[in-house]
Amino acid sequence: MSDIYLLGVDIGTTSVKVGIFDIKGGLRGFASTSYQLEHPQIGWVEISPSKWWRGFLESFEIATRRAK
Fold first, then answer.
1. C-alpha distances in angstroms, 51 versus 18, 21, 37, 62?
2. Number of other residues whose CB lies within 10 A of the CB of residue 55
3. Kind plus residue range of the DSSP H or E element containing 59
4. How far is CA 43 from CA 38, 40, 46, 48, 65, in A?
5. Is residue 64's pLDDT more than 80?
């Protein structure tokens, strides 16, 4: 088995998704972490980049554990 893995990251509107794949494209581990959007005024939607970062770190850790 190869020790080469590929990382896929999707930073979306309400969640971060992380997939870890083997070199043949097989899914080895996956995780998704959601976050709440902020609505400072009517019709506005915001999100702090720190929420994206924390969501990525959490999803990456879980997906990595599942890939073993």
1. 15, 24, 10, 17
2. 23
3. helix 49-67
4. 11, 9, 10, 17, 39
5. yes
In whole angstroms, give the CA distance from residue 28 to residue 52: 23
Over the chain, what is the mean pLDDT?
Answer: 94
Q: Which amino acid is at 59?
A: S
Task: Measure the CA–CA gap between 59 and 51, rounded to whole angstroms.
Answer: 12
Distance CA(4)–CA(42), nearest Å, equals 47
- Over residues 3-33, the pLDDT tens digits come to 899 999 999 999 999 999 999 999 999 999 9
User: What pLDDT is attached to residue 28?
Assistant: 96
Q: Name the pLDDT band for 2 (thresholds 50, 70, 90).
A: low
- Give just the sign of the alpha carbon dihedral 17, 34, 50, 12: positive
